[in-house]
Amino acid sequence: MTGKLLGFTEEVKDIFEGTHKTSTSLSRAPGPPEAGVKGSTSSFPFWPGGMDEPWADLLKKESLDASLFEEELLDTPPGFKCGMKFERKAQDQVDYIHSQPQKINLSELLAMDDDIDLEDLNEPDEKKEVDLEQTQFKQPDKPSDAEDAFLKLTSLPVLNISETEKKKPVTNYEWAVIDDISRSVENFNEKVPAMAMTYDFTLDPFQQKAVLHLEKKESVFVAAHTSAGKTVIAEYAIALAKKHVARVIYTSPIKALSNQKYRDFKEKFEDVGLITGDVQINPNAFCLIMTTEILRSMLYHGSDVVRELEWVIFDEVHYINDSERGVVWEEVFIMLPDHVNLIMLSATVPNTAEFAEWLGGIKKRKIYVISTLKRPVPLVHYLYTGSVGKSENDLFPIVDPSGKFLTNEYMKACNSKKEKDNKSKSSSGPKGQRYNITLAQEKNVYIGLLGYLQKKDLLPAVCFTLSRKKCNTHAEILSSKDLTTQVEKREINKFFKECISKLKAEDRKLPQVKLMGEQLARGFGVHHSGILPILKEVVEMLFQRSLLKILFATETFAMGVNMPARTVVFDSIRKHDGLNFRDLKPSEYIQMAGRAGRRGKDTVGTVIILCKADVPDSLALNNMMLGKPTKLESQFKLTYSMILNLLKIKTFRVEDVIKRSFGESGNQKQQKIYRELLTEATQKLDSLKKLDCSLCNVDMARYIISLKETRLLKREIMEKKCSQALANKLLVPGRTLVVSTIDHQNVLCTLLSLDKENKMKVLGIAEKNKPSDSKNSSTKPSILPWTKKLFYPSEKQPEIMNVTFSDIEIIGNKVMRIDDSAILKECKRFHAMNSNPGHSTSAAFQELCCLCEANLNSFPSANINLKDINFAPKVHDLERLEKSFESFTCVKCPEFSKHFEEIYTFMQMEEDVKEYSYQLSEQSLSLHPDYESRKAVLKILGYIDENENVQLKGAVAREMSNHELLITELLVKSVFTESPPEEVAALLSCMVFQQKSDDANLELPSHMKEKIKEIREVAMDISAVQAQNSIIDPNFVSQYNFYLVPVVYEWAKGTIFAEIMKKTDIDEGIIVRSIQRLSELLKDVRNGANLVGDTALAKKMEDASHQIKRDIVFAASLYTQ
C-alpha cells in the first residue's frame, strides 16, 4: 500500500442521519459501547440494500449542479501557502471570460441532470476495458511545499481484472449471470498478479472464476459437489477483507459447524472471533464466525459491526429449505445493507439461477452463479446382501462412476437375497420390504460387512444410521471387534484423556464417557445429538486423523466440515421425518453419500446400501440416487418478533419485506405484466360506449350476476350428482346428456366413453359448416343467456365433443343403444377425410335428433336424489334463481342477445381492471392475510396500539429470540415473582426442550405443578386470541413440553450430572443442548424484566443463569481451546 490515489467518489451527506435510535443511515453516530457486537433492541437497523430509500426523491429534488458553487470554495487550508488548483478547460475559460452576468433559470439547470445516466457513472460498460491509470488526477506541475510531496506517487502494478470474457452465455436473467466453468480462466495469473492468498495447488476453474469475481467485489453463488473445494472461496474472501482492512462474517447453520470453522480459520488468519449465544471470543476480530440467527439479530439490532463489513459468507445455503429455520436466511438476505458483498456456498441444487435472480433483484446487483460439473472423486454405489460367512463378499454395483443404473446387477442382488431368505419367515412392510430382522441377524450383517471392508481396504467408513438408538445399538453389538493397532490405541487413549481432563472427576466417570473411551480405543465412534458435545468433538477430531475406522452417525454428521471417508454405508434408506416413515430424498442421500471419497487419496468413493431384510425397490433407488436434488424453496413466514422489529421504524414497511421474500419472487416478476394489462384493460374500458337501452339498463347487470351464480351452483350440484351417478353406474355408454359448450347451450349428446379422470367423450348435435375461428372469439362471453330450450340448428351434423362433469346441464333419463367403439372410429375417419359419417354414427345421430325434436323445450332428467343433506339449500337456491330469470325486464328487449354481449363484455373488463389492480396491490401478497391477523393479535394483547406504535409489551417481546408472546405475558402477569431461581429455570425449560415425551406424570412439588398449569393456561389464552383472528396452530400449546423440568430443577439446585442421569431416560447430549439454549433464554428474560422495571426478577434470572452454567454442561468446545 503506497497511498497512491486511484480515484474518488463523492458521498452526499445524509440529511436524515442521527443516532442509533432515530436513523437507519450508515453515517449515523455510533451506538453505545455496551451494545457490543450484537447491537441493541433499541437501535434501528441499517437501511437494507436494494430497497428504495424514502428520502431518495427528496435528495434528487434538492441536488443542484456543483458548478453553481465553484467560486465559493476555499482552496487554501489554514497554515498553507497554497492549496488545490481547480483548473478549467480552455473553452470553459474563454466562456467564463466573455460571459456576462445573466439570470439563471433553475428549472433548466435542474433538467440538465436528466441527461445523465447515474448508473453509467457508477458502473463502467462491461464491453469497455477500464484503464485505472487514465482515471488518475494530474498532479500540479510545480508543488511548492513539502506538504504536497505526498501527491508524488510512484506507479503501481494495476490489478488486471477489468477484462471481460469475450464469450458470455446468453440467459434470460436480469440479475443472475451463469458462469461457464468448463475450462480454466485464460491468463489467470496476469488477471490477478498479486493474490490476497496463495495456494500450493492449482485452483480449479470454478475457484478461479470465483476469485476473479471477489477481486471485483462481485457477489457469487457457488453450488458445488461435496469436497469440491468451496472453502477455498470463503478463505479467499477472508484474505481479501484482511488485505482491505475491512471485516468479514462467516455464517453457518449450526453452532457445531461454527466451532469447527473457528478452529480452521484461526489457524490460517489468527485474528478470528466466534460469536454464539453463550460464548464470545475475540468479538473485535476482523473475521467473525457465527450462526445465521446471530447475524439476523445483529441486523435487526443495528450492530455497528455491520458498517465495517465487506463480505458475508453464507455456508450451507441449501439449509434455506429447513421448514423451521429457513426463514432466517431470507431475512438476512433482505436486511443486509447495500455495501456488503455476498458469498453463498451450497450443495448442488437445480435452481441456482432462479435463486440468484431473486437475490440479485432484491439487492439490485448482479449475482454470479458458479456450479461444478462433477464430483472431484466419483462415486460407485453398491447393494450389500451379504452376512457373516460365505456370503461376506456379496456386493453388487448398481450405479457406476458415470451415473448409469446397472439393472442387471440389481437383479443379481435380488436373486442373491432371495436365495438366502428361502427359509426365513419375516413379515412384510411397505413396498414388500421387511424391516423386523432380529438383533442377531443384524450383528451378522455388520460382522460380514466389516470383514469385507477390512479385506478390500475400504476403511475408514461412515455408517449413516437414521436414529440415535440404532447408532448406539450397532456400536454395542460390535463390542467384540477391534480395528486399531497398538500404536493407534495409545494415540487415541492419550488424546481422549487430554480432552476430558478438564472435566470434573465425577463427570469423567459418566457411563457415556467411559463407554465412548472404550469404543474409540477399538476404532469405533458414535455421533448423534444424544452424545455429549465434548465427546462428539473428540469423535470428529479422531476421525479427521483417520484413527477411527467405523463411525455410526445420524444425518447431521453430513453437515460437518472436512470429514470425508473412503466408504459411506447406509444402514437404511428410510427415515422418520416427524410424521411418518419415507424414503430418503435425493438431496438427503447425496449429502450423506458425498462424504465418500477423499480428494487426493481415493480414485473413487464407495457407497454401500445394506439389504438386511430385503432389497429396496429399484424405482425408489433410481429416484434417490439419480433424481434431481431438492430445489431451493422459500420457507419465509411472519413472526411476531419480525413484525415488532420492523414496526419500530416508521420508514420500514413489513409489506416491503414480504415482497422481497423468495416466495414472492414469481409474483413480483409479474408486476410489469400486470401493469401493462391494467393499462390495456383501462383503455379498452374507457373506449367502450355506454349502452343506451331503456330495457337492458334496468337490470341486465343483475341478470348477468344471477346467471354467474346459477352457473356456479349448477356446476357444484352437477359434479356431486355425477359422482353419485358414477357410483350407481348410471354414466354408461349411450346415456343421454345435455351439455353446454363455449359456443352453445343445452346441446343434446349421448355418452361414448368416460376415463379415470372423469373426462368424457360424447356424440352431440353440432352446427354444420360452423366457422372454425371467429373474429370475436376472444371477446365472446364465457357464459350464455339462461334458457331451458335445447340447441337444435337448422343445419346440423354429428360431432365428437370432450366434456367434463362441470359441463353437464342434465343427466337424461334415457339410455340409447349404440356401438360406442364403432362411433369413435367412424368419427375419426369422418373428420380426417371429410366424408360421410358411418352407419353407427348416423343411426345414433338420427335418434338424437328425434329426441331433441320431441323434447325441445325441456329434456327429462334421470331421478338422482342427492344423499348429502348439505346440498339441499343449494338445490333450493338454484331453483329460485332459475325461476327468477323470466321476471327480468331486460329479457323483453328485442336486441337482448346483442346487448347481453355488450354489457357482459363491459362487466368483464371492469372485473379485469379490479383483478389487475388487486394483483398490483399489497393485498395480493400471499402472507398479507397472515400479517393482518398477526397485527390484530398484537393490538388485542396490547403490544401495539391502533396506530401500530410499539408499546411496552411490544418492546419486551422484541428482546426474545423465541416464544415472544408467551414469555412476555408471563412477565407482565408476574408468574415468576414468587418462584426461586432454580424453579424459574426449570419451568422455562419447556420452551427449549423439543423432544416429544409424555409430561403428564412428573415428580415435582405441588406448587411447581400449579405453575405448569398456569403457564399452559396463558398459552391457551394466546392460542384463543390467535384462533379468533384466523391463526390456527393446533400445536401452539402442546409445543411447550415440561418433561425436562425435573432434570433442570435438579441441575439448578447443584445435583451432579451422574445422579441426574440415573433418574431420566433423556440422552445426555439432548440435556446439555437444552440447558445451553436455556441459558440464552434466561438472558432474554432478564433483559425483558429490566425493560418492565422488575429489577428483582432480572436479578433472579441472573442467579438462575449462574446456577445452571457449570461443569460438563458448559464445558468449553475443544475447537476453541
UniProtKB/TrEMBL annotation:
<dbReference type="Pfam" id="PF13234">
    <property type="entry name" value="MTR4_beta-barrel"/>
</dbReference>
<dbReference type="Pfam" id="PF17911">
    <property type="entry name" value="Ski2_N"/>
</dbReference>
<dbReference type="InterPro" id="IPR012961">
    <property type="entry name" value="Ski2/MTR4_C"/>
</dbReference>
<keyword id="KW-0547">Nucleotide-binding</keyword>
<dbReference type="InterPro" id="IPR050699">
    <property type="entry name" value="RNA-DNA_Helicase"/>
</dbReference>
<feature type="region of interest" description="Disordered">
    <location>
        <begin position="19"/>
        <end position="44"/>
    </location>
</feature>
<feature type="domain" description="Helicase C-terminal">
    <location>
        <begin position="479"/>
        <end position="647"/>
    </location>
</feature>
<dbReference type="GO" id="GO:0005524">
    <property type="term" value="F:ATP binding"/>
</dbReference>
<dbReference type="Pfam" id="PF00271">
    <property type="entry name" value="Helicase_C"/>
</dbReference>
<keyword id="KW-0694">RNA-binding</keyword>
<dbReference type="InterPro" id="IPR027417">
    <property type="entry name" value="P-loop_NTPase"/>
</dbReference>
<feature type="domain" description="Helicase ATP-binding">
    <location>
        <begin position="211"/>
        <end position="367"/>
    </location>
</feature>
<keyword id="KW-0963">Cytoplasm</keyword>
<dbReference type="GO" id="GO:0016787">
    <property type="term" value="F:hydrolase activity"/>
</dbReference>
<dbReference type="InterPro" id="IPR016438">
    <property type="entry name" value="SKI2-like"/>
</dbReference>
<dbReference type="InterPro" id="IPR001650">
    <property type="entry name" value="Helicase_C-like"/>
</dbReference>
<dbReference type="Pfam" id="PF00270">
    <property type="entry name" value="DEAD"/>
</dbReference>
<dbReference type="InterPro" id="IPR040801">
    <property type="entry name" value="Ski2_N"/>
</dbReference>
<dbReference type="InterPro" id="IPR011545">
    <property type="entry name" value="DEAD/DEAH_box_helicase_dom"/>
</dbReference>
<keyword id="KW-0378">Hydrolase</keyword>
<protein>
    <submittedName>
        <fullName>Helicase SKI2W</fullName>
    </submittedName>
</protein>
<dbReference type="GO" id="GO:0003723">
    <property type="term" value="F:RNA binding"/>
</dbReference>
<dbReference type="Pfam" id="PF08148">
    <property type="entry name" value="DSHCT"/>
</dbReference>
<keyword id="KW-0067">ATP-binding</keyword>
<keyword id="KW-0347">Helicase</keyword>
<dbReference type="GO" id="GO:0070478">
    <property type="term" value="P:nuclear-transcribed mRNA catabolic process, 3'-5' exonucleolytic nonsense-mediated decay"/>
</dbReference>
<dbReference type="GO" id="GO:0055087">
    <property type="term" value="C:Ski complex"/>
</dbReference>
<dbReference type="GO" id="GO:0003724">
    <property type="term" value="F:RNA helicase activity"/>
</dbReference>
<feature type="region of interest" description="Disordered">
    <location>
        <begin position="123"/>
        <end position="144"/>
    </location>
</feature>
<dbReference type="InterPro" id="IPR014001">
    <property type="entry name" value="Helicase_ATP-bd"/>
</dbReference>
<dbReference type="InterPro" id="IPR025696">
    <property type="entry name" value="Beta-barrel_MTR4"/>
</dbReference>
